[in-house]
Design a protein that fits this description.
Number of helices: 5
Helix content: 25-40%
Number of strands: 5
Distance between the termini: 42 Å
Shape: elongated
Order of helices and strands: EHEHEHEHEH
Strand order of the largest sheet: 1-2-3-4-5
Structural class: alpha/beta
Radius of gyration: 16 Å
Largest sheet: 5 strands, parallel
Low-confidence stretches: 15-27
Length: 162
């Protein structure tokens, strides 16, 4: 994605959020595809100075994620294809604050990072909480764009208040 001067970019969740019984949410990929089509190709819903910067989330079996109950009937590769189709960055939400060194070898999480690193235009990335994981990702997946999780800031504030 090429950033355009004067635009402000927002981020939206990928639908890997709490499981919903709402029938409208049951096929999230259809919903997201329509949303992207209307906002990116047709250009409605937002002001002229606003654009989608990224879509974020993580599969339910991702050890490095933050522990949300998540569901998707699509593979990470399918979700990446959707983001690439619309020129939107995909970001893994890796906000598990309890990671230890032995968790860094998780094969599923490493496979996800390899997959996200394959696509460079737009650049994909990760929203990260643990400093241990940040260092690991910088070393092993240098082309991922890393963003500090807001949960990290909340933890720091909570510790400083104690």
């Amino acid at each position: 994605m090429r950033l355009k001067k004067g635009l402000r970019y927002g981020n939206i969740p990928s639908g890997h959020g709490p499981v919903s019984s709402d029938p409208v949410c049951l096929n999230f990929m259809t919903c997201m595809r329509r949303f992207c089509r209307f906002t990116v190709r047709i250009g409605i819903f937002f002001y002229d100075w606003c654009a989608i910067g990224s879509i974020y989330g993580a599969p339910s079996d991702c050890l490095w994620a933050g522990g949300r109950v998540e569901y998707s009937d699509r593979t990470p590769r399918e979700v990446l294809a959707l983001t690439q189709e619309y020129g939107i960055s995909a970001r893994l939400t890796l906000s598990n604050s309890l990671l230890r060194p032995e968790h860094l070898t998780d094969p599923d999480c490493n496979a996800l990072c390899r997959l996200f690193q394959e696509q460079s235009n737009p650049q994909n990335g990760a929203i990260v909480h643990a400093e241990l994981l940040t260092k690991y990702l910088k070393k092993n997946y240098p082309s991922l764009y890393l963003v500090s999780s807001t949960t990290k800031s909340a933890d720091r504030l909570q510790r400083s208040a104690a």
